[in-house]
Amino acid sequence: MAERGPYAKGVARREQIIDTALRVLADRGYRKTSLRAIARELGLQPAHILHYFSSRERLLEAVIEAWDRSTGEAAAARAGTTDRGFLAVWPEGVRHNAGVPGLVHLYTAFAAEAADDSHPSHAFFLRRFARVRGLITEDLERGRATGVYPPDLDPGRAAVRLIALSDGLQLQWLIDPRIDMAAELEHGIATLRSPR
């Protein structure tokens, strides 16, 4: 049964704030987006946003989680419509990210800040990296079993390196947009394959 009353309105308002923040961050970028700018887009005062999110950091964490969820669901849908696994669709997601530099900047900045275990997003990034490592490791194990990858490949260690490659490419691309993140990630994945 659907929720009614103030609770449902609060959930809907919270989602509206996250959706608006996603759009504003994608358009204006991480550094150029203030709580005031997001509130202005919604026709609210910044204090109203803080009623739903205790701080700007908590709002940005919710934005990253929503973006990660939507991109993860899109990747799963692409992988699920074919026999392709995560490694095949991952570069497509990275290619899509080139269209939202503000969100890539937010992700990169927050990931670096979350290295401090007292940061509000530390637990989120721990879970996210573990989940992505698991997806990559599963693909590499399947590929190793079928001869796509060499038998001596360590899927867990390779997963760590591929995430480092992807995140490092995003940082380099933010500084120099001429870098083709998706092509470089595809090349990095291809170098793991067994020689033919």
Describe this entry's structure for a reader:
The protein is mainly α and 196 residues long. Helix content is 73%, strand content 0%. The protein has a domain of 134 residues: Tetracycline Repressor, domain 2 (Orthogonal Bundle). It has nine helices and no strands. The longest helix is centred in the middle third of the chain and has 25 residues.
Approximately how much beta-strand content do the residues carry?
under 5%
The tally of beta strands, per DSSP, is 0
Structural class: mainly alpha
**Number of alpha- plus pi-helical segments:** 9
Any idea of the CATH class of the domain at 57-190?
A: Mainly Alpha
Which CATH architecture of the domain at 57-190 is right?
Orthogonal Bundle
The Cα radius of gyration reads 19 Å
The best one-word shape is elongated
Annotated CATH homologous superfamily of the domain at 57-190: Tetracycline Repressor, domain 2
CATH fold annotation of the domain at 57-190: Tetracycline Repressor, domain 2
Distance between the first and last residues' Cα: 56 Å
The portion of residues assigned to helices is: over 70%
Unreliable stretches: none
Main β-sheet description? none
Mean pLDDT: 89
SSE string: HHHHHHHHH
In short:
With 196 residues, this protein is mainly α.
Defining key terms:
196 residues; mainly alpha; 0% strand; Tetracycline Repressor, domain 2
Task: Chart the SSEs and their pairings.
Elements: H1 5-28, H2 35-42, H3 46-52, H4 56-80, H5 86-97, H6 101-113, H7 122-145, H8 155-175, H9 181-190
